[in-house]
Amino acid sequence: MSDPVPDASFPAEQRRSPRASMFIACTLHAGGEHAPVRIRNMSPDGALLETPLLPVPGSRVRLVRETLVAEGIVAWTKDKHLGLRFNSAVSVPIWMGRRPSGATPAQRPLGNDLSMTIALLEHLGDELCASAATVAAHPVALQKLDIAVQLLRALQLQEGSEGRLGQLEALRAASVEAMQWR
Length: 182
What we know:
This protein is α+β, with helices and mostly antiparallel strands.
């Protein structure tokens, strides 16, 4: 079966890595909505999704499959398809249900664990901030939660990257300061 969206919609020269064809069900979260999706192809850098939920290009979204979480930006949409550019590299074999050779079932790349932790904390923050009473009663705690999410994002981006040390150091300092707040 051929790709439902021609390669011209996302030229190969813009891709950093080759894509693996697949047909995997998962869930797309965008804004306050979520919908079932099918991953049609994936690379460490992005994926082609078939979905009824089409956030506008530039939207931040989260792709979830069991314990796997990948966050990214919608690059384009066409009909019932969208191109997703991941914020950090994913392991395509793991998303396809394969373990790296020699890995035990409990072993997963740190990036997936960080993505899942970030997603859980962001969801918690969104839920807490939805209540004006909670925001009024716990502004310092909510700020600490936000700093923790920022620190985890910086750690996630740091993986395999040397250029973000300044941001990471600033967030570490903010975290230490936040621990002293009452």
